[in-house]
Each structure stands twice: as C-alpha cells, then as structure tokens.
Amino acid sequence: MVDTVIHLVRHGEVHNPDRILYGRLPGYRLSERGEKMAELVANHLASRDITAVTASPLLRAQQTAAPIAQRHGLGVGTDDRIIESTNHFEGLRVGHGEGRLTNPRHWPHFRNPFTPSWGEPYREQVARVRAAVRDAKNTNEGHEAVLVLHQLPIWVTRLAAEGRPLFHDPRRRQCGLCSVTSLVFRGDHLDHVEYAEPAAELYSGAVDATGGKLT
Question: What is the pTM of this model?
C-alpha cells in the first residue's frame, strides 16, 4: 500500500476593516499579514511531494494557494466544493448593529444549534469536502495534494474523520490561520490526521473571520 496525503490549508488573515462576517462575499483579499502567512505555509510545504494545489474560488483562498503552487511549479486549480459555508449573518458584524443577537429577526435561525440552523448544515459541508478530498486522493495517489479552503469546512471534516460529533464550540476549533490539517491515507484507509500551524508566529493581533482578535 502507498501513502497519499491531502493537506487542508486554511487561508490567511483577511483585510476586513469593518470586521464583518464576510462568508462567501466576493472581493475579500488577504491582509499584508495574511500574505506573509501564505508565504510561511508555502515554505512549510516546500519540501513535500505535492503534485496538485486546488483552492476554493474565493479570493482569499486563491491568494493563499498561489505561493504554495509556485514553490512546486504548479498552477492553482479551483473547486467549488471547498467554498466557505453559508451563514445567515453574512455581511453583518455579529453582535453589533443589525447583527446583534438580540434582534428578533435572527431568532428563528437559532432554533437548532446542532444542524446548525443559522447556516449550511455540518453534514453537507463534510460531504462536499470529503468528495473533493476523495478526488484529490485518487488523482494524486502515492503523492500529496493541497486543498486551500476555510475554517469551518476543514474543522467539521476533521471531526468526521476522527469520529467525533460535528456539533462543537467554535472557540475550541483547532484550525488557525494558514494552518495545515493533513489527512494521511494508507491505501484507501485514512490512517491518521496531522496538524501544524506554520504561521503561528504571526497570530498575535491577527483578526479572525468574525472580526475578533485571535490573541
């Protein structure tokens, strides 16, 4: 049996001065710090046997993927299946103004936190990311491939891979900016999951997807 590794890379910090939940909104690019994060993760993966780099269609993922692909003389493919999850609060600053959780118009979206009812169901995210992983594995058998995507789809895919419940506390996700969650397959069997944070030195003061400081 041969080993095949699929690296799920989260994009870097995004330029988001209004600190809104940008979700699938177009045009959100990496910040200067995010660009440096992308270089660090590219350096981290430079010595690996990577034969394909694919990204979500969103700009921040494409920008993160570019230096990774460049290190290996590859182009960046695009896969809609690894796009960010949908969210009722997209375009709002959560907890402020129209995004205040006390706003009655949001209440129907809190009816089921296990699905969750405020966004794309966890199971649907896992299904589409798993399909992309499966195709990347089959195409790059015996080598390694990179998928650049987003925090929540990566995290619930890891939870599913490890047989853990998909419902979770978002504050406890192990999926930092430009982190690498590696699915290591032995033949057709997922042998184990590895995790690395090559951009951790830049986390101090960085802003996450909802506009909150990481540290």
Answer: 0.93
Torsion of CA 32, 174, 197, 24, to 10 degrees: -30
199: left (phi over 0), alpha (psi -120 to 50) or beta: alpha
Distance of CA 108 to the CA centre of its chain: 27
Identify which of 115, 212, 103, 94 has the alpha carbon closest to the alpha carbon of residue 167: 115
Please determine, looking at this structure, whether the domain spanning 3-85+121-202 carries the CATH number 3.40.50.1240.
yes
34 Cβ contact list (under 8 Å, min separation 6):
11, 12, 13, 14, 15, 60, 63, 64, 177, 178
Domain boundaries, the chain: 3-85+121-202
Confidence of residue 215 (pLDDT cuts 50, 70, 90): very low
How far apart are alpha carbons 76 and 41 in whole angstroms? Answer: 15
Q: By C-alpha distance, which of 162, 159, 154 is closest to 178?
A: 154
- At 108, is the pLDDT very low, low, confident or very high (cuts 50, 70, 90)? confident
